[in-house]
Design brief:
The protein has one helix at 157-163; strands at 18-23, 27-30, 39-40, 44-49, 54-57, 69-74, 80-83, 89-93, 98-105, 112-117, 128-129, 138-140, 143-144, 152-154, 170-175, 180-184, 192-195, 205-208, 217-220, 223-226, 229-232, 248-251, 254-257, 262-264, 282-291, 294-303, 305-311, 314-319, 330-335, 346-353, 357-364, 373-382. The chain contains one helix and 32 strands. It has 384 residues and is mostly beta strands. Among the domains are: 18-121, Sandwich (Jelly Rolls); 239-268, no CATH class; 282-382.
C-alpha cells in the first residue's frame, strides 16, 4: 500500500511486508518512511538476479529503529552481495539462501547488523523421528516437534560394557544377555615362548623354547619318543639315525660311519643269531656216552641248535632256525681224542643236508661207525 501526501513522490508505510526485486545491476535501498524516489527495504525481499556479484546497499541505519529486520531470499541461480550504507561488505547471499539482517545498532550510518541465516533457504523440517531399525541403539524421545526436544541416544548395554573395558589384550565374553567383557593375554607354559602376548604391537608369535624340559613323550612326524624309547607308528616303518660325510653316529661308545662300518669299544654280546657270512650259522659240541644199554647225548654248547638225536655214530642235529641256503652250506666236524692205542684216528662227515637239520656219521680208523662219542664232537656250519 502507498500514499501520496503533498508531493508527487510515492510514500510507503513504515515497512511493508514483501517485495520481489529483479536485479539487473547494483541498487541502494531506502526506508519506507523516507519521502524520496527509491526501492524501499521490505520486511521480506525475494531476489532474482541474472549474474553473480550484483550489490544491494542497505539504507542509512540512523534513519531506522533498532530491531528492524530486512530479510533477503535468493531464489535465483546466482549470488548477490549486501553492503552496509558506507559500502562495506555485510554478507554474500548465495543461491537458495535466506538470511535475516537485524539492525542492532543505529548510532552510525553503517549501523550494526545481526546476521541470522534461515536454514540455507530451504523448507524447514517441522518434525522428525529417530529410529533404530535393528534396535541396536537405544533411543529415548526420538520424536521431535517444534520448538525442540532432547534426544537421548544410547548404545546397547553389551557394547557399552565393551567400551568400559579398561585393560588391554584380547576381548572375551564372560556372560551373555547382556554381554560382559574381559581381556585376556596369552601366557606361555614351561616349553613355550610367546612374543607380543597381548597382540598390541604386533601379531602374537608362539614358539617352542630351544630347550624342552619336563616332557614325558613327544611325536615328531611318525617318530615317537616315549621316555627312553624311540619308535615309529608307521606300519613297517624304520627309524633312521644318519650322519653326514666323515661324521659318525655314536651310541654308548659304539661308532657307526656313513658306510655302516662299526667300531665297538667294548664287548659285543649277541643273544640271538649274528647274521654275518664270516660267522657260523650253526655250531654245537656234544658227547654220546653209553649208559647201561642206551646212549646218552649231552649238548655241551651250541648256537641255533634245538636238539641232537641218534646213536652209534649217526647223529641228526636239528636247527632252531632253518637255513636259507640249503645246497651251499658247509659242515666242519672235529672229534676229541680217544686216548687209546695208536692209531688214534676217527673222523666224521655229513650224509644228509637239509634246511632244518644235518645228519652226520662218525667212523673209526677202520671205517666202522663208532658206538659212542665219549670225548665229544664239534660241528660248525658255515653259510652265506
Amino acid at each position: 500500500m502507498s500514499y501520496t501526501i503533498f508531493s508527487t513522490n510515492t510514500s510507503y508505510p513504515s515497512q511493508y511486508p514483501y517485495q520481489l526485486i529483479e536485479l539487473t545491476g547494483n541498487i541502494t535501498l531506502g526506508w519506507a518512511t523516507s519521502f524520496d524516489t527509491f526501492i524501499a527495504a521490505a520486511g521480506y525481499n525475494e531476489i532474482t538476479t541474472t549474474q553473480d556479484g550484483y550489490v544491494i546497499t542497505l539504507p542509512d541505519a540512523t534513519l531506522a529503529s533498532e530491531g528492524v529486520d530486512v530479510l533477503f531470499s535468493n531464489i535465483s541461480a546466482y549470488n548477490f552481495i549486501v553492503n552496509k550504507s558506507d559500502g562495506t561488505l555485510l554478507y554474500t547471499v548465495n543461491s537458495g539462501v535466506i538470511v535475516d539482517l537485524k539492525l542492532i545498532d543505529n548510532t552510525t550510518s553503517a549501523g550494526g547488523w545481526r546476521i541470522i541465516p534461515f536454514l540455507g533457504g530451504y523448507n524447514g523440517i517441522t518434525s522428525f523421528n529417530i529410529e533404530s531399525s535393528d534396535n541396536t541403539i537405544t533411543i529415548t524421545n526420538g520424536a521431535v516437534t517444534p520448538p525442540g526436544a532432547t534426544i537421548n541416544l544410547q548404545l546397547p548395554t553389551s557394547i557399552s560394557n565393551l567400551n568400559n573395558v579398561a585393560t588391554t589384550g584380547f576381548p572375551v565374553i564372560q556372560n551373555t544377555s547382556p554381554l560382559t567383557w574381559q581381556t585376556r593375554r596369552l601366557v606361555a607354559g614351561n616349553n613355550i615362548n610367546i612374543i607380543n602376548p597381548d597382540g598390541i604391537t604386533d601379531n602374537p608369535l608362539i614358539n617352542l623354547n630351544d630347550n624342552l624340559s619336563g616332557l614325558v613323550s613327544a611325536q615328531i612326524g611318525n617318530v615317537l619318543i616315549n621316555g627312553l624309547e624311540i619308535t615309529t607308528n608307521e606300519p613297517d616303518g624304520s627309524v633312521l639315525l644318519t650322519s653326514d660325510g666323515e661324521g659318525y653316529v655314536i651310541l654308548n661308545n659304539v661308532t657307526v660311519d656313513t658306510n655302516g662300518n662299526m667300531v665297538v669299544n667294548g664287548n659285543l654280546t649277541v643273544t640271538e643269531t649274528f647274521n654275518n657270512p664270516l660267522t657260523p650259522k650253526v655250531w654245537c659240541t656234544f658227547t654220546d656216552i653209553i649208559t647201561g644199554e642206551s646212549n646218552d647225548i649231552t649238548i655241551e654248547g651250541s648256537s641255533n641248535v634245538s636238539t641232537i638225536t641218534g646213536s652209534n655214530g649217526v647223529y641228526t642235529i636239528n636247527f632252531t632256525t632253518p637255513l636259507s641256503n640249503v645246497n651251499n652250506y658247509g659242515v666242519v666236524i672235529t672229534l676229541g681224542t680217544t686216548g687209546g692205542p695208536l692209531p688214534l684216528v676217527s673222523h666224521g662227515f655229513w650224509t644228509v643236508r637239509e634246511a632244518g637239520y644235518v645228519t652226520i656219521s662218525i667212523v673209526d680208523a677202520s671205517g666202522e661207525l663208532v658206538s659212542s662219542v665219549p670225548n665229544g664232537a664239534t660241528v660248525v656250519i658255515m653259510s652265506v
